[in-house]
Amino acid sequence: MSAKILDGKWLASIYEQDIHRQCQTLSEKFGSAPGLAVILVGDNPASKAYVGRKGKVAARCGIQTFDTRLAASASKEEILEHIVAFNKNPEVDGILLQLPLPGELSSESDDLIAAIAPEKDVDGLHPFNQGLLLQGKGVLRSCTPLGVMKMIDLALSDVKSGDDIESTDQIPVADLSGKKAVVIGRSVLVGKPVSFLLLERNATVTIAHSRTKDLSAVVREADIVVAAVGKEHLVKSDWVHSNAIVIDVGINRTEQGTLTGDVAFDEVAQACSAITPVPGGVGQMTVAMLMHNTLLSYMARMSQ
Q: Could you report the per-residue pLDDT of 158-172, keeping only the tens digit for each?
């Protein structure tokens, strides 16, 4: 394949090492480790597996976890009680409410996220933190969009996935001045926040979506393509130019039960300069950025 493959598993492991070193140093200094609380409601297999992976990554990073498991029949009030308790718990620096919530609770997601203390909102979904992002301020940014930006940094660096590097400091923050970026998708989870992060780096950003006319022509102009719509293999090889960086955020389950992205990986990898695989790409970085945000929240608490 001609494209530079952006291995999220490898990059996430470097971030985990960085976070572990910082947690170890700070824990020795302050006498306590960062704490992450995860609230899981129901028994969705994908959510359970995801939460389990977060616990393993937290342990590797030196972050202690405080997990709550609630039945799918739990009420909004029960979930709120746990959120309030974690808000008050001085050992908890980050709170994550695992989404999607089951059944009718899904309509209560916004209210429940808004109940999380903004300084502990390590998923970056609280309206306060999203408002700060709009203003170009704040610290806690949404994890998946943050992971996308780290992938773009890797793409534009001299570092290749698998290189023996000691720290992510060896991957410089890229200045995207003069770059055209197209984000396919306008969700509050990925599309909108990643657009603002790209703007912070001085990219010229277009947000495309299902109502965009001649989508392939719009994407073909982009130096950076972020696909986040949940439509299997939407982006084809003739949608991108040879210098394009293609970041695939989509996760789709095929009829065979395997996972694939919004980008036709095999063909697009022959046509662009850098690309993320699915699985093994942005999803890995999402968890690493959750730990990164938990560390930032902990550091903010200890600096008070």
A: 999 999 999 999 999
The helix-helix angle for 282-302 and 45-61 (nearest 10°) equals 50
pTM higher than 0.90, yes or no?
yes
Residues sharing a CB contact under 8 Å with residue 81, sequence separation 6 or more, in sequence order:
none
The span from the CA of 155 to the CA of 157, in Å, is 6
Residue in the block written with tokens 């960062």 = 34
Domains of the chain: 30-117 (3.40.50.10860), 142-283 (3.40.50.720)
- Can you tell me the distance from the alpha carbon of 252 to that of 36, in angstroms, rounded to the nearest whole number? 28
- Element spanning 200, H or E: helix 191-200
Q: What is the full DSSP assignment across 233-262?
A: T-B-GGGS-TT-EEEE---EE-TTS-EE-S
Q: What is the set of active-site residues?
A: 54, 98, 123
| Residue found under tokens 């299902």 | 210
Cβ atoms of residues 124 and 97 within 8 Å: no
Q: Could you read off the pLDDT of 16-28 as tens digits, one per residue?
A: 999 999 999 999 9
How far is the CA of 137 from the CAs of 132, 197, 225, in angstroms? Answer: 5, 11, 24
- Percentage of residues in the chain having pLDDT higher than 90: 93
**Structure tokens, 57:** 């990554």
CA distance 281 to 126: 25
Please give the structure tokens belonging to residue 125. 């979904």
The token pair at 191 is 């599309």
Check residue 1 and give its pLDDT. Answer: 59
